[in-house]
Design goal:
Length: 459
Amino acid sequence: MESTACHSLNLLLLLLLISLPVFHCIAASSSPTSVPSFPNEALPTKSGYLPVNASTGSAIFYAFYEVQKPISQPSKTPLLIWLQGGPGCSSMIGNFFELGPWRVNFQKAKNDPLALEPNSGSWNRHFGLLFLDNPIGTGFSIASTPAEIPRDQFSVAKHLFAAITSFIRLEPVFKSRPIYITGESYAGKYVPAIGYYILKKNAQLPASERVNLAGVAIGNGLTDPLTQVATHAVNAYFSGLIDERQKKELEKAQWEAVRLTKSKNWTEATNARIRVLSLLGDMTGLATLYDFTRKVPYKTELVSELLQNEELKKALGVNKAVVFEECSDVVGDALYEDVMKSTKYMVEFLVKKSKVLLYQGHFDLRDGVVSTEAWMKTMKWEGIEEFFMTERKVWKVSGVVSGYVKKWKSLTHVVVLGAGHLVPNDQALNSQAMIEDWVLEKGLFGNQQGEGSLSNIRG
C-alpha cells in the first residue's frame, strides 16, 4: 500500500540501538508466547534481523515461514520474498493481513477481540515465504540514523541484497532454492530494483556466490509513474465514477504532474500526483481509491494493534526499543523525490533474463489494470507486440471465473476479479492459485496454454 508522506518529524527513536545484537533469529518452537491473540503455531519458523551495515547496526527485520506442504525436495523448494509498498509500509501487513499463514480477524465485529486466524490461502502452502521490512526504518527494521535510510532504488536494492544474502547463509539448503521476489504497490519499484540488482551483481560474482533469482511478481504496482498518473481520469470516467467536466479537470491536474515529472522537478511532481489522487477522491466520494467497491477502507490498523504487544515482539526477536509503525513517514520523506521516477527499464531487463508476473485487482483506482497496461504498452522488449496480440484467457479457480490471464513467453499479466489493491487479502485462495500456478508453470500460466487452470483442483 502506498503511504502519503506528510513530512512530519516522527523520527524513529530506534537510533543508537546498536548495543543490542543486530543479527538474531528464532525458531517458533523455542520462543513460546502467551499472547491470547497469537497462538504459538503462528510464530514464524525464523525471525529477527539481517544486517545491511555491520559498522552502523542498521538491519532489516525478517519473518520466515517454511513450506507447509512441500511438493519438491528441500533444495528445490521455491522461496518467495515479499516486499510491502508505501514507501515505508511494513511487510507485516502482507504477513498478518494478506498472504501469511495466519491473519488478523479483519472481518470481526467492532467489539470482538483481536485474534489471528489460519489463512487457507497462504502463499507458503508449497513454497517458503520470507517477509522483509524494507527499507530500513520501516516496521521493525532499524535505521542507525535517518540519513542512512535510502533515497533511491539503487540504495534500496543494495540493502536488500545484503539482507537476502545474509538470509541465504542461515541454512545451506537455502543456497540452491529458486527465489521469486514479490510485492505490491510501491514495491512495483522495489521488486524490479532488487531483481535488476541481483542479475547485474550475479554477472560479477562466482557461481557459488550468486543469488538464484527465478522471477519477479508485482501486484497493483507503481512502476512507471509518468505513464500511470495520466490514466486516472479516463479510468474513472469509463467506470462511471466521474462525468466529462470532472474528467477534464482531472486531466488538467494529471498534465501538470506529467509536466513536472518530465522536467525532473521530483518534489513538485510528487506533490502534483498527490493532488491528482486527492481530487479523484473528492470527486468520487469513495471510502478508498484502493477499492472502489468498499464502504470502509482496509482495516490494516489491526496489524499495528497486534504488533504493539511487548511479549509478542520479544517472541519475534524484535529489538525491544523499536516501536512498530504500519507506515513510516520518515521513510516516506526520505523517498519523496523517488516517487515519480520510473523503474520500467528494470522490468524490461528482467523480462529478458527471467520471468515476470504483473497482476492487479480490478477494483483498484490507484495502481490498477488500466494504469499497468498503459505502461506495459510502452515497454522496450522484442516480445511486447506478440504479447498484446496474444488472446487473453478466462481464468477459473475451482470452476469459478476468477480473472483473466495473458501470457507470452516470460511475461504474464493477470486481472484478478473481486479484488482491489490488496489482492491476497481480497481473494486469498485465488491469489494462492495464481502464484502457485505461475511459479510451477501450470494451466494458463504454463508454456502449453489450455482452456482452464490446473487450479480447478485445489488441495
